[in-house]
């Protein structure tokens, strides 16, 4: 996977084109728009499709490890009422003894398997059959507490210990969670309500969290209604997330535009290296994907960047936040990220990079290409004043660096503000490239800038609509400079639209 990502990122570097690319590019653009559209249509219809499958015997689980067990062998009862924590723990323990012989597979058959949090082991495959649902117990007394994550200092929502994730793993190797689209359901409603009513005393637990581990595969399943973050690989290497559906209510969350850190129902990648996320459908109550690497001095001290991450072929929806976001916690640094073939629909923002004074670190070598925005508030956002800090103080003179960020082949319709790149005097945004962008605007105010910049420097290449901000240099399709940008300090940021 290292080679795959490195190779991909290797030939991505944007260079001025020596045409006659226009028609071929249009052809490819058409191809992937068609592919995304079919994924989209398939997603919208497949719930009905699933119902018609009822009555047909579901396919038996494939044998993916030398030893295969069924949860019922360990006393599991899939009636939605019986607590199966011990059955899961016994199953995991049996598999933990088989590590040297290739590990084992634990099949979760059709049924509703209520459980409290449990830990995984190395060399395990957890296989969720069609109509198998792992249900999280709702009473928090069953959720064990564990220390806060180091790069979050004292804790995220509350200082002190935090709740475990439902399915938890740390210091593991070779873990697979897959199936025939079975579901892990966090039954998060009660947690969200208690969170709003301020009845919780500890940071909520994610649905699936894997820490300090490597060689992780999550595929062919559905994750829904997490109490908190949905899928949280933290300081891991070699993680693949493929063909996963992630669902949560899209507007059951407070407006998270900077102030309230609380309601993250997102899939979050934290200080990870060599990671692939592809072919997923994500519709949640916060960012669909958020790449992070630590919070202010805690993140600087922890010192782990997120890099070599490929995110592609996704359909994402985020009513209150963004499709794909980087930051605002990025103090360990974020680089070598490729985001391609993404459809963002009915969302507040498309792609967002956010940071603030005090973070330190960098966001650099980020490549976005083949993006489609459908009914999105702001398409591309870079924001440098996302001032949310740990309680225990921070040093505002430690500044992050934002540079070398490119967007190629961006399309859209019903977008209010296609681009808003808001650097500041202390955190300028350097070397942003936008190539071939045509984004249709939702409705028009006369004379309002749709491509807004401040303290930003960069270049546009080829056809770019709406017209770029003055700050940027403009090149034509042949790579010839057409217009030199004015001072990068010019600001036409307008939050009115
Ligand atoms: C899997 O299940 C989810 C939720 O029921 C559904 O939205 C999705 O379309 C299903 N995926 C497949 C491949 O059937
Ligand atoms: C899982 O393992 C961690 C680390 O050993 C431990 O802190 C936690 O309590 C365990 N969780 C459960 C549910 O046993
Ligand atoms: C995605 O998963 C579903 C079952 O969840 C399976 O039917 C389908 O073939 C998978 N698609 C890919 C591309 O792996
Ligand atoms: C990454 O993990 C996968 C799945 O466990 C494994 O097949 C592959 O060999 C790993 N890649 C590297 C470079 O370790
Ligand atoms: C996911 O499903 C596809 C299609 O059935 C299959 O090829 C792939 O191996 C599955 N992934 C895992 C990890 O089992
Ligand atoms: C978010 O959901 C609300 C309620 O359905 C809707 O009115 C609003 O338009 C949605 N926002 C976006 C950006 O789609
Ligand atoms: C600007 O960024 C691109 C990557 O987006 C990189 O290839 C290029 O070398 C950078 N230019 C400068 C002058 O640093
Ligand atoms: C404007 O930008 C230049 C660099 O182009 C910088 O040296 C100068 O300090 C900036 N001035 C203000 C007022 O921000």
Helix content: 10-25%
Q: Mean pLDDT score, rounded? A: 86
- Which small molecules are bound? 2-acetamido-2-deoxy-beta-D-glucopyranose
Total number of distinct structural domains: 1
Return Rg in Å.
23 Å
Architecture per CATH nomenclature, i.e. the level-2 architecture: 3 Solenoid
Q: What characteristic shape results from the CA principal axes?
A: globular
Q: Can you count the beta strands?
A: 31
Full CATH superfamily name: Single-stranded right-handed beta-helix, Pectin lyase-like
By CATH reckoning, the class would read: Mainly Beta
CATH topology: Pectate Lyase C-like
Provide the structure class.
mainly beta
Point out poorly predicted stretches.
1-22, 45-53, 253-266
If helices are DSSP runs of H or I spanning 4 or more residues, what is the number of helices? 5
Question: How far is the first residue's CA from the last residue's CA?
Answer: 42 Å
Question: Can you describe what's shown?
Answer:
This protein has 497 residues and is mostly beta strands. It has one domain (10-42, 143-483): Single-stranded right-handed beta-helix, Pectin lyase-like (Pectate Lyase C-like), CATH 2.160.20.10. It is 14% helix and 43% strand. It is built from five helices and 31 strands. The protein has a 25-stranded mixed sheet that branches. A four-stranded parallel sheet has the order 5-10-13-16. Strand 30 and strand 31 form a beta hairpin. The longest helix has 32 residues, at 22-53. It is globular and about 70 Å long. The two termini are 42 Å apart. The model is unreliable at 1-22, 45-53 and 253-266 (pLDDT under 50). One 2-acetamido-2-deoxy-beta-D-glucopyranose is lined by residues 117-119, 144, 146, 164, 168, 170. The chain crosses the membrane at residues 21-42. It is found in: Secreted, Cell wall.
